[in-house]
Amino acid sequence: MFVGSHPRAGRKRPPVRTAGLLLGLVLLLAATALSLAVGTQQIPLHQVWSGLFAPTGTENDAIVRDLRLPRTLTGVAVGAALGLGGGLMQTLTRNPLADPGLLGVNAGAAAAVVTAISVLGITSFTGYLWFALAGAALAATAVQALGGGRYATPVRLALAGTAVNAALFGYVNGLQQWDLGTLDEMRYWAVGTLAKRDADLLLTVLPLLVAGATLALALARPLGALALGDDHARALGTRVRRTRVLSVVAITLLCGGATALCGPIGFVGLMIPHAARAFCGPDPRWLLPYCALYAPVLLLGSDVLGRIVAAPSEIEVGTVTAFLGGLLFIHLVRRRKATRL
């Protein structure tokens, strides 16, 4: 059973759960509006609206349409991907403290990017976007294979992920120390940011995120059966090995695509599923939609907070989520009943 789950959690009334989804939609719209309006130059909401739907060629229109709209849409897409990936990861491993990075996604992407920069001399974001995605996929595949392939168990996946992460991040750190130019280029990608991500980059990665989200939602029912244990899942007609493999594929598409696009943004996949279970219970059929709605709210909210706190400059969203997630993680670890999650 997940940490902190309660026998009544699985018996939440559907109207209450539906109300939570509607609230998430309202909060997402509010976070989107704030993301479009708040920045170095504050823009009133009525000017944001006119800039989107009735532009007159003003400076504010250009800021809204060319800078903040792609950034906001990227935040929505990446937030939903990280939230879904976190919900899948925690359900698959039956561990609510698991993060999508546990499958080696972040480490694989980082290793591929540092190799592209140092060995191949690629320095443009567009150039190493596909290296990041390929590295994430290869690392997740290695974790799946080391964890037992089709016979992988949650514990073996976690152990394999820890080993692969340690090895790849050791490689990354070593290469960065050997090549200081690589260190400088890598810092720009590794900070985790929504800034300077234009619509073309988002459209390049969006099909992968949509495919991953579709697969994740389709796996909700078999994952719910899998949470009861392998024997119970088989008795209910669930193909256990296939479900695990497809879950890893979905996590790779979601988190690999998000990491390739914005760099590693930590803790979103940890915080949102854990918080969502307190309201909708552990059933993946409800948990995953909650994650898809509330994770973009967190990501956009953190991005706006970073702009406000350090104005007229800004703090990158990856730094803000790391700070918030670190506080939550410490709280979870210190909880007296943490072993019953």
From TrEMBL:
Task: Quote the protein name from its UniProt record.
Answer: Iron chelate uptake ABC transporter family permease subunit
Q: Which family does it belong to?
A: Belongs to the binding-protein-dependent transport system permease family. FecCD subfamily.
What are the recorded Gene Ontology BP terms?
A: siderophore-iron import into cell
Q: Which PANTHER family match?
A: FE(3+) DICITRATE TRANSPORT SYSTEM PERMEASE PROTEIN FECC-RELATED (PTHR30472:SF1), FERRIC ENTEROBACTIN TRANSPORT SYSTEM PERMEASE PROTEIN (PTHR30472)
Q: Which Gene3D superfamilies match?
A: ABC transporter involved in vitamin B12 uptake, BtuC (1.10.3470.10)
**Listed GO MF terms:** transmembrane transporter activity
Q: What cellular component terms from Gene Ontology apply here?
A: plasma membrane
Does Glycoprotein appear among the keywords? no
**Keywords noted in UniProt:** Cell membrane, Membrane, Transmembrane, Transmembrane helix, Transport
* Keyword match Ligase: no
Return any one Pfam family short name: FecCD
* Location within or outside the cell: Cell membrane
For membrane topology, the record states: Multi-pass membrane protein
Q: Domain of life here?
A: Bacteria
Q: Which residues cross the membrane?
A: 72-89, 101-122, 128-147, 154-172, 201-224, 245-267, 317-334
Q: Which organism is it from?
A: Streptomyces asoensis
